[in-house]
Amino acid sequence: MILPDFIIKSDKGLYCKYGDFYLDPQLPVSNAVVSHSHGDHAVAGHRTVLCTSATAAIMQLRLKKTCAKEFIVHGFGEGFNMDEVRLHFFSAGHILGSAMVLMEYRDVKYLYTGDFKLQEDETCEPPEMVTADVLITETTFANPAVVHPDPRQEIEKLNQSNHNVLLGAYSLGKAQRLVNLINRYCPQRKVLLHHSMLAITKLYEDFSYPPGKYEPYNRKLMKFPDQGFVYIVPPLTFESYFRAKGVLRAFASGWKRLQSRNDMELYISDHADWNDILKAVETIKPKEIWTLHGDGTFLQEYFLGTLPVKILN
């Protein structure tokens, strides 16, 4: 029997009382099961963090000594227990080390996706979908109007000219994927990385997911126009360079609002879109869907009368 209170939302985050652990808690807790190392899922101050080895390494890099008192690392597919709940990590395909969390209790399986995507990405482990009775899914882009384009077609927009490009991107996951896409589909371009992205990118290499060729940013190089340089920078740097001259401005994101006031649109997202969420539902075959991190009302309407959809956020 599916337990409606198997996962509840508390002031600290999603809590499973049957295993005494939280999923991606936003405040320090005793036992945190962390799906991946983005800042909205991985915070500092926990006593014990249970996660994949790559997630632990990135958290330690970004959060330093405050990240956790103890890390317990598990590989994909490796089972472990939290009280009476049996857990497994399966790749979410979102960024390096990102995991879906399968939780089994009293013969019922609950699958928490964290953030996930189905698009190909050579810089992280491919997604692995498993069947479950309850799908607890992100709904960042769960809207029929949102369909992410082919990332190859998007990145090939950079081939339309040889202008230098100031390319905004998140430092973890997106930056490394962009390096890879540019190397594969825009080989005449030279990638320059902002200094804040270098250490994380080195971790990708250490975990055998090298994104491709890049160089640390050299200010002198960007002074030469039409050299085909792509300078990848984090959001704050991108915004501070709003008056930059001699470059085309673009921001790689699935969000339409981040495409405004730029010289080109670059819709490259690391989240599942509407069609991919439906594909996930088809593969996982849940009896119920619980939604998080977005708007679950479109899924409620789509599955009305056929599949119960409960909104947790």
Describe this structure in words.
This protein has 313 residues and is of the alpha/beta class. It has 2 domains: 8-144 and 271-311, Ribonuclease Z/Hydroxyacylglutathione hydrolase-like (Metallo-beta-lactamase, Chain A), CATH 3.60.15; 151-259, Metallo-hydrolase/oxidoreductase (Rossmann fold). The protein is 19% helix and 25% strand. The chain is built from 7 helices and 18 strands. It has helices at 53-63, 151-155, 174-185, 198-206, 235-240, 274-284, 297-302; strands at residues 8-9, 14-16, 21-23, 31-33, 46-51, 68-73, 79-82, 85-91, 99-105, 108-112, 134-138, 165-168, 190-193, 215-216, 229-233, 248-251, 288-292, 309-311. The strands form 3 sheets. A 7-stranded mixed sheet has the order 7-8-9-10-11-17-18. The protein has a 6-stranded mixed sheet with strand order 1-2-3-4-5-6. 46% of the residues are buried. The model has no long low-confidence stretch (mean pLDDT 95).
